[in-house]
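stage 2 :: seqdesign
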């Protein structure tokens, strides 16, 4: 059963590689990319943050290999780390869009 964590780590590694080495593709469906230059920047931004679920998967595999009885509880850490990364990327996309917006469209914030 600990091999499920290795499979998930490989899936995350593939996604990270795809986002990092093919940054021109619009792969993330939950963000508004905006202009063409933003696609590359946002994909690289997301790729770096997606290393977190990859590392969580590898850590869970290490722990589950030593203590197999913890495999089922550790499975819940993977979706939790993915949700945190999705929120983090969504907030980052909003910040990037705000930086790219013309000065006349920005909100007045102190």
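stage 2 :: out
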């Amino acid at each position: 059963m600990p091999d499920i964590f290795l499979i998930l780590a490989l899936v995350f590694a593939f996604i990270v590689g795809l986002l990092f080495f093919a940054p021109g593709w619009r792969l993330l469906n939950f963000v508004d990319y905006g202009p063409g230059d933003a696609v590359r920047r946002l994909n690289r931004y997301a790729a770096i943050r997606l290393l977190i679920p990859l590392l969580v998967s590898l850590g869970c595999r290490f722990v589950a290999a030593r203590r197999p009885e913890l495999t089922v509880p550790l499975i819940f850490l993977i979706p939790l780390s993915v949700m945190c990364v999705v929120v983090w990327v969504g907030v980052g996309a909003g910040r990037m869009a705000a930086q790219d917006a013309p000065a006349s469209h920005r909100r007045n914030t102190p």
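stage 3 :: structure notes
- Helices lie at 3-21, 36-49, 51-66, 71-75, 77-100.
- The chain has a mean pLDDT of 82.
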